[in-house]
């Protein structure tokens, strides 16, 4: 039995950048299973919270604690950015890159990357430069790269924000299958419909604070705060 | 205008006849410049990458200094290297003055800031693009530098070629430290200076055209070897 890096505990965590208050103070606990969706208006702190949990932002106030040593926790998580970061390499080499970092041989890493590309539905010549991919394909490639190390925890920052309906559906199908396989997912989205389809629980943020948190069914059926009610109704948040 | 045509004709004549003196100084020019470029690339490219990914006190000062050194006057570099390598200088015991090695040293000093500065600019842009990904993948500093160097290799080739271009056309410093000694340290640029001084303009221009052709040929060869244009985009 491999030890889990979860739960992740945040206690009174705050984020400030150049003197500006961005997030917190907030406390939460991420359990070992399910899909947590971060909802909230622009600038509410969804991306900042994801980045903070993943280690892209430094915690200066409060505590962030993994159930495993930090090194191990870092290795067992991955992040998919809203705008996919495309390395100046072939598609297969972009996906294989994390495996090369782990010391795998190029041929073994490429073979594994090709399998992962097929799993996320990336077909065609994988030796092509990655920049030739469409927006949806680039996001799939980024997802494949994030998954190639088989992370226990996957952060996604609005992964389908710039995609059309078909690509969004494909990404969601991949996420559903990951959920079924036991990958812990934490994702931000603006799309309430997508949140309903994927969420097991929801964190609703506004002005850098968690305004409402709970299981998805309760949140969507009976939001308790005026901000969450307004957001779900598509109204402007007071 | 007549001088130009005469120079072109002289260049053709030298090349077609495979003039032994021309072949000798052309090979020496290439040896000195390519060696200097390789050494400058070995120093300058990692230095550019290191400056891009590291934050330290006085970083901006170091970068500004590096940029300023791009305009280092070759004659001054030649003079300093001359003093250092002369018999009375600290490295006089090595007996390097008036050898191709001294010319390589001077050229390395002149072109390393150019290579490092252009590399730094290219890698800095790529670093801002890759930053979040490389941090997210939990890379070490060495892994970051390696990825940035590899993925900006075509821009770095341009940096190396800019260094090569500066070095192949350099005359002031290598004249001082090399001495323009026939069959020892004479290269195309110092030969051109010598022939111009003697009023032998046709031969000087001929050598000049050979020099230009050589610079273009090396650039084309490197671009073809690295398939820069075929893989275009990056």
Descriptive account of the structure:
The complex is a heterodimer of chains A (238) and B (234). Chain A is α/β, with parallel strands linked by helices and 238 residues long. Chain A has a single domain (26-233), classed as P-loop containing nucleotide triphosphate hydrolases (Rossmann fold, 3-Layer(aba) Sandwich). Chain A has nine helices and nine strands. Chain A has helices spanning 46-54, 70-75, 91-101, 106-119, 135-147, 165-181, 192-198, 216-221, 226-233; strands at residues 8-17, 20-30, 35-39, 61-65, 77-80, 153-157, 184-188, 201-206, 209-215. By secondary structure, chain B is mainly alpha-helical. Chain B has helices at residues 2-16, 20-53, 59-69, 74-85, 100-136, 141-151, 153-168, 172-178, 188-197, 201-225. In chain B, helix 4 crosses helix 5 (100-136), helix 5 packs across helix 6 (141-151) and helix 5 (100-136) packs across helix 8. Chain B starts with a helix and ends in a 9-residue tail after the last helix. The model of chain B has no long low-confidence stretch (mean pLDDT 91). Classes of the chains: A alpha/beta (238), B mainly alpha (234). The A-B interface holds A 54-56, 74-75, 78-79, 81, 85, 87-89, 97-98, 101, 129, 131 and B 126, 129-130, 132-133, 135-139, 143, 147, 151-152, 231, 233-234.
Strand order in space, largest sheet of chain A: 5-6-7-3-8-9
> Helix segment count of chain B?
10
Q: In total, how many beta strands of chain B?
A: 0
What is the CA-CA span between the terminal residues of chain B? 41 Å
How would you sum up the major sheet of chain A?
A: 6 strands, mixed
Global Rg of chain B: 20 Å
In terms of quaternary structure, what is this? heterodimer
């Amino acid at each position: 039995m491999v030890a889990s890096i979860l739960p992740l505990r945040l206690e009174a965590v705050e984020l400030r950048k150049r003197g500006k208050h961005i997030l917190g103070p907030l406390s939460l606990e991420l359990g070992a299973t399910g899909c947590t969706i971060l909802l909230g208006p622009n600038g509410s702190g969804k991306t900042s919270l994801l980045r903070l949990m993943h280690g892209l932002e430094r915690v200066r106030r409060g505590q962030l604690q993994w159930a495993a040593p930090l090194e191990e926790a870092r290795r067992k998580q991955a992040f998919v950015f809203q705008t996919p970061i495309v390395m100046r390499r072939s598609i297969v080499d972009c996906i294989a890159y994390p495996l090369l970092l782990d010391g795998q041989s190029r041929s073994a890493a490429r073979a594994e990357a090709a399998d992962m590309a097929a799993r996320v539905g990336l077909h065609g010549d994988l030796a092509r430069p990655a920049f030739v991919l469409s927006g949806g394909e680039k996001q799939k490639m980024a997802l494949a790269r994030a998954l190639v190390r088989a992370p226990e925890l996957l952060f996604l920052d609005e992964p389908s924000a710039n995609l059309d309906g078909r690509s969004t559906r494909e990404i969601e199908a991949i996420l559903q299958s990951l959920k079924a396989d036991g990958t812990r997912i934490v994702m931000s989205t603006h799309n309430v419909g997508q949140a309903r389809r994927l969420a097991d629980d929801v964190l609703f943020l506004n002005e850098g604070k968690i305004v409402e948190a709970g299981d998805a069914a309760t949140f969507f059926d009976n939001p308790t705060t005026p901000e969450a009610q307004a957001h779900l109704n598509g109204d402007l948040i007071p | 205008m007549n001088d130009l045509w005469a120079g072109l004709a002289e260049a053709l004549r030298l090349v077609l006849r495979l003039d032994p003196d021309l072949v000798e100084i052309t090979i020496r020019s290439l040896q000195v410049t390519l060696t200097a470029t390789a050494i400058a690339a070995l120093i300058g490219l990692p230095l550019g990458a290191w400056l891009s990914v590291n934050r330290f006190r006085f970083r901006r000062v170091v970068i500004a200094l590096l940029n300023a050194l791009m305009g280092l006057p070759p004659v001054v570099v030649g003079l300093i290297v001359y003093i250092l390598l002369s018999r009375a200088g600290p490295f006089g015991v090595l007996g390097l003055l008036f050898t191709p090695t001294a010319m390589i040293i001077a050229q390395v000093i002149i072109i390393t800031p150019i290579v490092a500065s252009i590399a730094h600019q290219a890698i800095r842009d790529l670093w801002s693009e890759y930053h979040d990904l490389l941090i997210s993948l939990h890379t070490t500093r060495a892994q970051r530098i390696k990825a940035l160097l590899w993925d900006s290799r075509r821009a770095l080739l341009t940096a190396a070629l800019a260094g090569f271009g500066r070095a192949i056309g350099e005359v002031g410093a290598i004249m001082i430290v090399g001495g323009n000694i026939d069959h020892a340290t004479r290269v195309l640029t110092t030969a051109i200076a010598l022939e111009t001084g003697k009023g032998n303009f046709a031969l000087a221009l001929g050598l000049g055209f050979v020099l230009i052709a050589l610079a273009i040929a090396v650039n084309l060869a490197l671009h073809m070897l690295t398939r820069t244009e075929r893989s275009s985009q990056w």
